[in-house]
């Protein structure tokens, strides 16, 4: 039984790595001694991340990837597995949010294609490599929207509910192959998705809704992700970890 609390020498693929939670996770993993493949549609963000990682002595390389492009996912994941030697850890952070009224089919299709189907595509291509290592780890980023709902983002909410269902189904399906699959539900975090919210509105929301009275930082989610991919976390699978400053605990209502 492996009880190591280190990912040094592990090979990790992180999607959505050019910004936000994905960027913080890729940087943290590289700093912890993993070989990291950072994938995202944003090439400029990837190149700056590569530069930062090199300056810190980390092993991190970027790949341009749109998870909505099935052929692209197949090609890039194969390239990454070849370049790294395999894949031991997969973290799915790629995502979009498109505010829209209920029934907007364009927003629905794009949001689900990236946030749910795209996630499935990357997992599907990575699974043979994750199985090969004998203790593969998958972490999918859901949201506290998967535990409730907010007006005007029905596609995003539906997709994040789907991420939890997919994660649990995956966990029971691949358990005998030595792979664990878990989901994290971040609450209000300072990322690109929340950048348009004015600071006074952020502060007001946090004071009213979050026991810790603030928005979280991407690095705080990255450390939660790191905890789930450690070799020592081999008995944790199918779990949903909420990282929201106590928001859902405070606002939970009985059925």
Explain what this protein looks like in three dimensions.
The chain is of the alpha/beta class and 255 residues long. The chain has one domain (11-246): Rossmann fold (3-Layer(aba) Sandwich). It contains eight helices and seven strands, in the order E-H-E-H-E-H-E-H-E-H-E-H-H-E-H. It has a seven-stranded parallel β-sheet with strand order 3-2-1-4-5-6-7, sandwiched between helices. Helix 5 (154-174) links the parallel strand 5 and strand 6 (180-186). The longest helix has 29 residues, at 105-133. The protein is globular and about 45 Å long. The N and C termini lie far apart (41 Å). The model has no long low-confidence stretch (mean pLDDT 96).
CA radius of gyration is 17 Å
What is the topology, as strand order, of the major beta sheet?
3-2-1-4-5-6-7
Mean pLDDT: 96
User: What is the architecture at the second tier of CATH?
Assistant: 3-Layer(aba) Sandwich
Question: How far is it from the N-terminal to the C-terminal residue, by CA?
Answer: 41 Å
For this structure, the CATH topology is Rossmann fold
CATH class: Alpha Beta
Largest sheet: 7 strands, parallel
Q: Provide the succession of SSEs.
A: EHEHEHEHEHEHHEH
CATH superfamily: NAD(P)-binding Rossmann-like Domain
The helical percent reads: 40-55%
Total number of helices: 8
Spatial shape: globular
Poorly predicted runs: none
**Beta-strand level of the residues, as a percent range?**
5-15%
- Give a count of the beta strands, DSSP E runs of length 2 or more: 7
Estimated structural class: alpha/beta
User: What is the total domain count?
Assistant: 1
